[in-house]
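[job 0412] stage=complex_fold ligand=zinc ion status=START
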Amino acid sequence: MTRILGIETSCDETSAAVLAGTGDAVTLESLVILSQDVHRVFGGVVPEIASRQHLVALGPVIDRALADAGATLATVDAIAVTHAPGLVGALLVGVAAAKGLAMARGLPLVGVHHMEGHLFATSLEHAAAVPPFTALLVSGGHTLLLDVPAWGEYVHLGATRDDAAGEAFDKAAKLLGLPYPGGRHVEALARDGDPARHRFTRPMLRRDQRPGDDDYYDVSFSGLKTAVLGAVRAAGDALEGEKAHIARGFQDALVETLAAKVARAATAHGRTRVVLGGGVACNRALVAAIERACGDDVTVFAPTPRIATDNAAMIARAGLWRFERGERAGLDLACASALPIPGSRPG
Ligand code: KG4
Ligand code: ZN
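[job 0412] stage=complex_fold status=DONE, emitting structure tokens
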């Protein structure tokens, strides 16, 4: 059994977790997530502020996670830290802290790719959310459709050509005058919306698409954002009464597009499990649309909001898998704003 401390600082959550186990049998012993509220004031994450807040919070967050787990640095076996992708200044804070602790305590260090963390996250809550599966990662910065035959093997099927799904939600929210981050506000508003009122075009989704077409799995959301802008303008003074309908039209178009592409991927690879990750996986309409599109033979696993959004438990989980394979990072572990997931290959 390995007990591993996970550290995550890639964006605007300062998080630490302790996880213990072997293979897919793991226990989450603690998870502390400190969300940086300050960015709400600016309507988006300000990188320099994010780094500074991580610097202030990370030490106490790690101490709290260790204490909650009844652990100390003397009773953990390794440290896993997110080193890419993300805001480099923010990543650096976590990586520097992890290196310092690893060096001081003589502990092995494992570098984790943030998106691989999201792939492992759902298995913390659903024991059956393990490969082989079709994966959809939908966050503020990423929209990725993968086939996962085994942990560490990631077949890249599709991605967004422009805005990430979460980014599209946030931009639509802004156009509708909702707070940042706007995804959950759009979802709440859309519940009262009439689905027939605004039927926006489903981007990159046509019946005549065939496997092998370069837009078969890819998505694009910038046109949808423009459609929302058009609807907002057209509503003019009547916008207040129209908002819920526009939110519904936007959300339906986005989730139906993603659901259709996920169903294509699951069918093409004969998968009976679909695993969702990232903040947008909290969206119940998305989960329901994917369940509908995939049919009864497929089980869709979605994480709860605590595990869907950025957290160190998923980093500890992915780190444990890499640690058990003998992977170790040196003190020269570098941060990167962008990096392919290790083990990924084109579909
Ligand atoms: O994974 P995450 O916490 O952070 C990133 O790595 O980006 O994802 C945050 C994104 C935001 O864009 C937020 O608006 C979106 O997830 N989000 C949602 C919902 N909850 C969070 N989008 C749609 N519906 C939701 N319920
Ligand atoms: Zn994330």
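The domain at 130-302 is CATH 3.30.420.40 (Nucleotidyltransferase; domain 5).
[job 0412] exit 0
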